[in-house]
Specification:
By secondary structure, this protein is of the alpha+beta class. 38% of the residues lie in helices and 26% in strands. The protein has a single domain, classed as GAF domain (Beta-Lactamase). A six-stranded antiparallel sheet has the order 3-2-1-6-5-4, sandwiched between helices. Helix 1 runs antiparallel to helix 2 and helix 1 packs parallel to helix 4.
């Protein structure tokens, strides 16, 4: 079994754990992805506050960040809140609208999470390696995003 398909199974188990609340599940997921994928050096979930037009950090694994609230449109995360599309930044130093959380970060991927067709949050991953994120990471994280969305559906029912 490949690393990614094993992690899909492990993530499904985390999200279906009846003993944990949604935030605990997201934190578990962050820890597992951070620990098991060598180049995932910071893993976090931001969710949209549509009233304030900001993203708010709900769970993460890695160094604490000063950027727990990000306005829509600012940084890679804020751009994805507006574009509704996965963004891969191979070299963050070349990205004009980048918000630096840690000087060691070299590349980043941000994957939106949709709930009832609305872009309600995102998975944000930083790497200390240049050009770390490939199509397989995107496909893997888009699956994780859908699984999180299904869990939100369960929480809101
Ligand atoms: N680099 C992000 C900000 C969040 S940190 O990576 C934790 C951005 O440009 O939006």
């Amino acid at each position: 079994m490949s690393l990614f398909s094993g992690l899909i199974d492990e993530s499904a188990k985390i999200l279906l754990n009846p003993k944990k609340n949604f935030e605990e599940k997201l934190n578990n997921l962050c820890n597992v992805l951070h620990e098991k994928i060598s180049y995932y050096d910071w893993v976090g979930f931001y969710f949209s506050n549509f009233e304030n037009k900001t993203l708010e950090l709900k769970a993460f694994s890695g160094s604490p960040t000063d950027h727990e609230v990000i306005p829509f449109g600012k940084g890679v995360c804020g751009e994805v809140a507006v574009s509704n599309k996965t963004s891969i930044i191979p070299d963050v130093s070349l990205h004009k609208n980048y918000i630096a959380c840690n000087i060691n970060v070299k590349s980043e991927i941000v994957v939106p999470i949709f709930y009832k067709e609305s872009n309600i949050g995102q998975i944000d991953i930083d790497s200390f390696t240049f050009d770390a994120f490939k199509e397989e990471d995107m496909l893997f994280l888009e699956k994780i995003s859908k699984m999180v969305s299904r869990e939100i559906n369960g929480v809101k029912k």
